[in-house]
Amino acid sequence: REHLRDGLHGRVVPRGDEAAYLNAAEALAADVARWPTMGRAARAAVLPLEPAQVARNLAGVLSGLATGRAA
Q: How many CA atoms lie within 13 A of 12 on its CB side?
């Protein structure tokens, strides 16, 4: 999450807002010209990440979801 920047790598929408999610997904799908730029920006954002740390972070998020804690 902390690596995603709204409008640069994708879109950020409020948690649980299905309408906002669908609107953002439709807008991204229609904006074909931005796909290459967003793809390059997303790749550059994740290249420095360490896979083991990403896995630990994901495990923490999933554990929080399973126990009902906010992620």
A: 9
